[in-house]
Amino acid sequence: MKLHEVRVYKSEENLKREDQLAWKIAAVASDKVAVDDEVTEMVINRIIENASVAVASLIRKPVVSARSQALAHSKSAGGAGANIFGLPADKRVSVEWAAWANGVAVRELDYHDTFLAEEYSHPGDNIPPMIAVAQHVGCDGMSLIRGIATGYEIQIDLARAISLHRHKIDHVAHLGPSAAAGIGAMLGLDTEVIYQAIGQALHTTTATRQSRKGEISSWKAHAPALAGKVAIESIDRAMRGETSPTPIYEGEDGVIAWLLSGPGVVYKVPLPEAGEAKRAILLSYPKEHSAEYQAQALIDLARKINAEHPEATNPDNVESIVIHTSHHTHFVIGSGANDPQKYDPTANRETLDHSIPYMFTVALQDGDWHHVRSYLPERAQRVDTVALWHKVTTVEDPEWSRRYLSTDPDEMAFGGRVVITLKNGTVIEDELAVADAHIHGARPFGREQYIHKFRTLAEGIVDEQEIERFLELVQRLPELSANEMAGLTVTARAGYLDSVVEPKGLF
């Protein structure tokens, strides 16, 4: 890896294209380096994970809405169109709208992979737009693998170096460029074309973090889907010869100057050198629980305390519960956010899955976490749960903040230390650095766990024959022909989608 210094330049400094971050990202994307076997296997794992969480969300309102929008857009000229999760494989719609619908389905439950560093991300959001394009234009399996590996590489490298949330910019601002780069790599486009697409994608995907603040709306699931859709449109425009604002990162009216740290600050962005394999996907981690990633280890810790100290589940016994954790966990999903909604029993699911006081409480009382039951209104409003929930607070611990940003795999930590003080004076204290499913956790995810997650979430939604068909196909991904890519979707059982009414809009 090579570190690239990135800063603001005045217009008269005339920064050459080859020295711009967008060009350097495009050069990585256009570098046709071989994909490692280990990376290939992880790409397959993440496609399985994406499919599992997508089918589990098929009748949720935002997904129904996005799907209905996509169905209003017939496949466009120039290709075969793309599939939508849940519908028969022969049903094709316009490529960018398929990416939109599938992106919302993947993101809705907050249940797919994550990477955390200076910025946080769900790099699996790169997958829906790439599969859609692959189906539309007829890419084979290895081309798709190369594109996904590239998308992960770019988003993770940007997240390692450039904080967006510190400036209240939503994390999908890294996703637009990464998806454009991944699609460009998959299609084998020239550096120049990918460069222009990256600039357009970044320019049009910068938005504020209000979508993840206070009462969190359904837009949270749509934001990454929009970034994927925009990336496809940016690639299309760039292929037609259209150009983008430049230099998009370094210009004196560019992203760094006005949306991020501004003039005088130098970012150091790591990118693979020419000929170097793209392996960043191996740094990302899956989710065992349907919740914000910073909650994963704390949910696991709550389950452990439930088994060892059942007395701590009764609010009548508890004086206080204090979670000592990182800056991000405290200020984004903890009490440091100062969002009263994080303690509101009537809050919506999107808000509750960004409330560590709520999630820790339910996991502590139930000794379990479920992607549906744990968020039900009757669960959130249970009297003893509300009483215990309001005794939970978070505090920032500098050591946990340091470990959160560490680049040493043995130090990296996304959990915290919990101190439960009982009314009789007993103090229960325990900590967990990483989730059980993390590569360094107690039960790291492998292919078996990804398949189990898919089977579990697809049960009752997808017929057994369709489950087996998809799993057999996706595990042959490196050898799939362009024609077989049409099967890289999952069809719901007959009648399952009939229970929902499609909303009406403009289209």
TrEMBL record:
EC number: 4.2.1.79
Domain MmgE/PrpD N-terminal: residue ranges: 20-264
Reaction(s) this enzyme catalyzes, per UniProt: (2S,3S)-2-methylcitrate = 2-methyl-cis-aconitate + H2O
Keywords in alphabetical order: Lyase
Coiled-coil spans in chain: none
Domain MmgE/PrpD C-terminal residues, every copy: 289-477
GO molecular function: 2-methylcitrate dehydratase activity
Transcription regulation is among the record's keywords: no
Protein family membership: Belongs to the PrpD family.
Assembly information from the UniProt record: Monomer.
PANTHER family in UniProt: 2-METHYLCITRATE DEHYDRATASE, 2-METHYLCITRATE DEHYDRATASE-RELATED
The protein's name in its UniProt record: 2-methylcitrate dehydratase
Lineage of origin: Bacteria, Bacillati, Actinomycetota, Actinomycetes, Micrococcales
